[in-house]
């Protein structure tokens, strides 16, 4: 993944902030939170001491099994787990006065946390957890990392192996399903499409195979299937996820073209389809994503594909545009210069020809430009200030025909910064001093920081000029004084 000014950690923070505005909790790095909804329950504080209310017997047996599997067999001595509950279990009654388990929590978050502890070397999570239909929160902290096993529930970064169980589709009230960072294999079960209330689905960083199923999850906000071994096309059904904010299918083995239906996801903030084998042409339908901040399609070989000029007509909020290493041909569209928020632009590693559009001069927020390894020629349209701001983040090498127009302002040290020379016939208008000529002949070296080197060179030049001026004035005054004697 390239380093973006509107960085992906910052973008993920924005997505999580948007999610936090709804009643969905945010899963954090070493534990799991699951929140479905159970509207049939009495949604209010309960003491669990009612004389007539009792725990549902099937759910009580399931709790006993879960507790025993995590090394907490002492729970079996409690006759009614909701009436004699501990810190880490929460219950609510229904309208008939039957208690249902809505929350189970495990693991020592700190010395002050009284959740039941787990034995990480021997703890397992039995399928009995699926017999808790009213469960709203299932929380584990460092319970399974030392004992990888096939999983019967929703856990992230716990070292689990094997397939995703199809039975997860029975948890129809589930809001968050986060299984990333395990060793899960096999295809994604189509039963997940029954999770109609799901808001976040993260299966990234596993070894999942097969095709992405035709899911229908209209309330989904985040879909992350990156870093797997998924094959086949991107399903057109993703276009029905009208609430989707983040779509990350990067680093898989997906093929065929990007479906036009993705243009219907008007709420999208990030699209990352990089490092696949997707084919062209690029769909102009992506231009309808008016809320999009980052579009990352790099490392998809799309030979003989051009960049549509009207692709960017509606992307006024785009900050990061990454189209590198795609074998794109043709010219760079002028319309990219009409993206007022653009800060990062990567077009490197393609076969683009012609000149850099003069409209790029309007990209006043641009701070990183990579166009190296193309067939571009002509003058770079940026003003001197823009080039200083980008410094080494402006990469143009491998385009033998590019040059800097001195009409944009004399740019001392241009070769050291950008590996370019002045355009033919322009150098005479703005003579470069000896230091500038030296910099012009020096090829950029890895690790250099050209702005500081060039600025230092400019300061030295000004200092030498000042000393020469002082010397001339002093000599002149000395001559007057000498001959007046």
UniProtKB/TrEMBL annotation:
Signal peptide range in chain numbering: 1-29
Record membrane topology: Single-pass membrane protein
Taxonomic lineage: Eukaryota, Viridiplantae, Streptophyta, Embryophyta, Tracheophyta
InterPro entries tied to this protein: Leu-rich_rpt (IPR001611), Leu-rich_rpt_typical-subtyp (IPR003591), LRR_dom_sf (IPR032675)
GO biological process, one term: response to other organism
A single GO cellular-component term on record: plasma membrane
Protein localization: Cell membrane; Membrane
Entry keyword set: Cell membrane, Glycoprotein, Leucine-rich repeat, Membrane, Receptor, Repeat, Signal, Transmembrane, Transmembrane helix
Region Disordered, annotated ranges: 429-460
Name of this chain's protein: Protein TOO MANY MOUTHS
Basic and acidic residues bias locations: 429-449
């Amino acid at each position: 993944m390239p380093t973006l000014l509107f960085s992906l950690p910052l973008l993920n923070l924005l997505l999580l902030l948007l999610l936090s505005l709804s009643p969905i909790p945010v899963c954090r790095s070493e534990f799991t939170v699951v929140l479905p909804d159970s509207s049939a329950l009495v949604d209010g504080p309960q003491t669990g001491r009612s004389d007539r209310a009792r725990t549902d017997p099937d759910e009580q047996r399931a709790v006993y099994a879960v507790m025993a599997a995590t090394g907490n067999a002492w729970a079996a001595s409690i006759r009614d787990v909701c009436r004699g509950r501990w810190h880490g279990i929460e219950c609510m009654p229904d309208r008939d006065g039957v208690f249902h388990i809505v929350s189970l929590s495990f693991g020592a978050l700190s010395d002050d946390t009284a959740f039941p502890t787990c034995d990480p070397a021997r703890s397992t999570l039995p399928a009995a957890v699926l017999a808790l239909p009213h469960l709203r929160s299932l929380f584990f902290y460092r319970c399974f990392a030392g004992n990888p096993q096939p999983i019967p529930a929703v856990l992230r970064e716990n070292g689990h192996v094997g397939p995703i169980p199809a039975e997860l589709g029975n948890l129809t009230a589930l809001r968050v399903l986060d299984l990333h960072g395990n060793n899960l294999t096999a295809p994604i079960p189509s039963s997940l499409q029954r999770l109609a209330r799901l808001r976040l689905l993260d299966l990234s960083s596993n070894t999942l195979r097969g095709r992405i199923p035709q899911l229908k999850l209209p309330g989904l906000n985040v879909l992350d299937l990156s870093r797997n071994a998924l094959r086949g096309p991107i399903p057109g059904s993703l276009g029905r996820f009208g609430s989707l904010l983040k779509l990350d299918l990067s680093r898989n083995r997906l093929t065929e073209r990007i479906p036009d239906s993705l243009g219907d996801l008007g709420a999208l903030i990030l699209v990352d389809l990089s490092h696949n084998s997707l084919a062209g042409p690029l769909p102009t339908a992506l231009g309808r994503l008016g809320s999009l901040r980052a579009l990352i399609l790099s490392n998809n070989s799309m030979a003989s594909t051009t960049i549509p000029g009207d692709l960017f007509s509606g992307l006024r909020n785009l900050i990061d545009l990454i189209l590198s290493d795609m074998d794109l041909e043709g010219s760079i569209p002028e319309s990219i210069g009409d993206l007022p928020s653009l800060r990062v632009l990567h077009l490197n590693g393609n076969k683009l020809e012609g000149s850099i559009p003069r409209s790029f001069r309007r990209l006043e927020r641009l701070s990183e430009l990579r166009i190296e390894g193309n067939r571009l020629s002509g003058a770079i349209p940026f003003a001197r200030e823009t080039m200083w701001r980008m410094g080494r983040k402006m990469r143009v090498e491998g385009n033998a025909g590019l040059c800097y127009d001195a009409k944009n302002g004399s740019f001392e040290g241009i070769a050291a910064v950008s590996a370019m020379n002045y355009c033919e016939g322009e150098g005479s208008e703005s003579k470069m001093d000896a230091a500038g000529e030296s910099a012009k002949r020096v090829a950029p070296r890895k690790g250099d920081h050209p702005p500081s080197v060039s600025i230092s060179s400019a300061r030295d030049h000004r200092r030498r000029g000042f000393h020469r001026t002082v010397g001339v004035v002093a000599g002149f005054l000395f001559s007057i004084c000498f001959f007046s004697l």
